[in-house]
Structure formats: structure tokens, C-alpha cells
Amino acid sequence: MSAAITSILIAAATKVGAPIIKGVLEKHVGGLAGTLAGTVVDQVAERLGVEPEALPTVDQAELGEVVSEVNANMPELIALYEKGLQGQFALLQAEQAEGFWQSAWRWGWMYLLAFLWICAFLLFPVLRVFGIYIDPIDSATLMTLTGWFISLYMGGHTLKEFGKQAVEAVKTWKRTP
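-> C-alpha cells emitted (177 positions)
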């Protein structure tokens, strides 16, 4: 989402007197996805029945009405956002209370997988040039281990999205003559 969308919504919020939305969007810097400002943009677009990218093409009067409606619901959105932040903070505190070794598997696996990928595709091939042959881990096995780590550490949706993208990539390869 672009700064143009944000500025259009700020202008609409100013015009209709929606100070909460105006304040949230004015303090926003960077990407919108996953932020309170991103939620505001998504709510406005959803109520208008358009994608967020299409907001600049929407009638300004209709946009103003929807911004007013979303502004009225902002206390609930802010409370929901705050609950999510509290949950993240509680998880962080619980992990810190467990100690070093209970959470070490995450960074340990991350660095182990990075090392194995570097060895398989960079270090071992370079050593082969100099006559030193070390049999690398099989790429399919490495991909399986990486998939398990992604699904455990980052959640199943990350692996599912990765799988979807891989399938789409293969489909495009098959379509090109």
C-alpha cells in the first residue's frame, strides 16, 4: 500500500472529522501490512467493497461516509490491536522465564540450517574445485528439514504460502514454451 492511499484517507478523515483515523494514519511510517494503520486501510476498503489499491478511484463522498463509520469503530479496533500486542508481550515474557535452553532450539535450528545451505551450495562446490570432495546433504532432505523448521517456528501458514508459491512457479514454467 502506498503513501497515496494513506494521504487520501487522511484527507477524507480531516474532511469528515474523524480524528482517531487521522491520528493513526499520520503517525504511520513504512509498510502498512500488520499495523493498526494497515487495519484501518483494510477496513475502509472492505466496507467499500474494493481492494486497498483501488481506494484512489472511489467517490470522495462515499469514502468520507465509510471513514466516519470506521472512525466510530476505532475504539474496538484499538482494543483488539492492544490485546494482540499484550499477547505477543506475554509470549515473550513466558519464553524468557523458561530460560535459555527451552528457546535455544529456534536460533540453533536457524543457524544450523543456514550453515547446511551454505555448505551444500557454496562451500562444498568451491572445495570440489580444489580437489576436496565432501558429500553434501541431499537437497530434498535439506528442503524437508527447512520445511519442518518453517512450519514449527513460523507456523503452518508460512509453509502453506511457500507451497502455494512453489506450485504457481512450477505452473508458470510449464506454460512457457
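The chain has a mean pLDDT of 81.
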